[in-house]
Amino acid sequence: MSPPDSTDETVWTHEGFELVCGLEVHVELATASKLFSPAPNRFGDDPNTNIDPVCVGLPGTLPVLNRQAVELAIRLGLALDCDIRPSVFARKNYFYPDMPKDFQISQYELPICADGHLELPSGHVVGIERAHLEEDTGKTTHVGGGGRIHDATYSLVDYNRSGVPLLEIVSRPDIRTPDQARSYAGELRAILLATGVSDARMEEGSMRVDANVSVRPVGADELRTRCEIKNLNSIRSLGRAIEYEARRHVQLYLDGEAPDQETRHWDEEGGRTHTLRSKEEAYDYRYFPDPDLPPLHPDPAWIERVAAELPPMPAARRHRLAEAAGTEPAVVALVVERSLDELALGAIEAGADAARVLVHATQNLAPDAAALDPTAFADLVRMETGGELTATQAKQVLAEMVESGRSPSVIAAERGFEAMDSGDLDAVVDGIVESHPDEWQRFVEGDQKVMGFFVGQVMKATQGQADGKAVSARLRELAGA
Amino acid sequence: MADFDEAQVRKLAELAHVKLSDDESAGFAGQLDEILGYAERIQAHDTDGVVPTSHALLEAGLEGASALRDDEPTGSLDREQVLEGAPDPGDGLFKVPKVLP
């Protein structure tokens, strides 16, 4: 496979075509019971042990909407800067054994959340068209024919998942590279977890990502025929599938053909997509408003309360830390991802050097360090920038601070990490130089690689107490450089 | 007039998995045509300034929020009992004919 023409991180292009992609993400909401009935919403139980008359579609049953599902939908909508609107439940009619009443209740023309956006760690903004509530279907297992739907001899149905509340989040076609798609899915997942809206486990199906992929000539603003890719079980397969599908479209156009609008299945092992449904099948879901459910008009006071309880979103946290540190949001993305941003902010506000704080938060601290006292962290950074500790020593002291919660000065003193007197250090460096005349000759002649050798020797002789920068400075001074 | 023809009836019947004889298709086409014609007459009226009556519950003052249920799970139906009503129970699951022909 030839590489794409452009490795520009903002737009994927190949043979004069560019990628246009939107994602539809279904998430199961973390409620205790189902969307329209009180059977437990719980993953992993024995088949058909979380069922009630409504979710198996028994005659005469009526749906009653779960308040918590609505609250979680509002919560995610607000987290994605959507408008929360009056919404209407509709019936989507089709025959399939995973949906025993022969229709799925979903919001169609009037979704609860509309017109939001999600800012990726890179700063790229993806529009959110809508997010709507709907019920999940039962789970069908195809038996015989290697488990493939087309060759199966019969199917087995488990209705534990039937009626589990889902939120379908539909992005605008603002995703222009496979990386952005991965980043969008990752960021959305982080928000779902931070807001407690869903446990968002792709491997358990509580977060399912479908990709709408099309291509167009570079720079065009038309939208060409798209294919919907399903069965993306990981963020990695999402990126692979989008790239495969975009190349398939480009090849079709180059051959004078065009893709059909269809749903395609990602085959992880084969690394390709294939047609999922036969084209002859009729698609006419005959949506109409469900007469059993009144329109949903959430009270403005309810929406305000949910908004007030919302934690700050990752994008806002990145902006806040970046501003305090005088850098770009993309630079602090990892610190926010590890939830170390409050700690970093605290240390910077306590007067510590922002660049060193970010280096420690990015390279030397795990998420469990979030409980560290920011003033103690600031003290450590000040000892480092003030020359009392070398970078290596600071890292060691920091590790022990996380473990024991003791102050950096106590730990440094205990370990004998005291700044070497510059006269003492010079004497050590001079001694090392004298005992290695050949290496020294090479260094003087300009072989910079020998620098590492001398620094290493000095570190050994001082048991790591020397400051690497001071050692290099002394070596250059001696060499007259 | 709405002009609902037999071809549309046959398409709807197919989508709804209903078998209709030719006579039935013709009969329903005429009836549906009358019903849609009635709806068209209603739609022709000027409803500017009329409060929408989108749902009977709203008219009764039961706005969405009051028709909500607390998120309290109950137990499950008894699986064996439910499967007794299934044409082909298999190992705790509902066994169904293959999904695609």
Description of the molecule:
The complex is a heterodimer of chains A (481) and B (101). With 481 residues, chain A is of the alpha+beta class. Chain A has 3 domains: 13-308, no CATH class; 312-415, no CATH class; 422-479, Arc Repressor Mutant, subunit A (Orthogonal Bundle), CATH 1.10.10.410. Chain A has 15 helices and 15 strands. Chain A has helices spanning 67-79, 178-195, 235-254, 300-309, 314-325, 333-337, 341-349, 354-364, 374-385, 391-404, 408-414, 422-435, 437-444, 450-461, 468-479, and strands spanning 13-14, 17-28, 83-84, 89-93, 103-107, 113-119, 125-135, 139-143, 154-158, 165-171, 207-217, 227-232, 263-267, 272-275, 288-289. In chain A, strand 1 (13-14) and strand 2 (17-28) form a beta hairpin. In chain A, helix 7 (341-349) crosses helix 9 (374-385). With 101 residues, chain B is mostly helical. Chain B is built from 4 helices and 2 strands. Chain B has a two-stranded antiparallel sheet. In chain B, helix 1 packs across helix 2. Chain B is flat and about 55 Å long. The mean pLDDT of chain B is 84. Chains A and B meet through helix 1, strand 8 and strand 9 of A and helix 4 and strand 2 of B. Strand 9 of chain A pairs antiparallel with strand 2 of chain B, so a sheet runs across the interface.
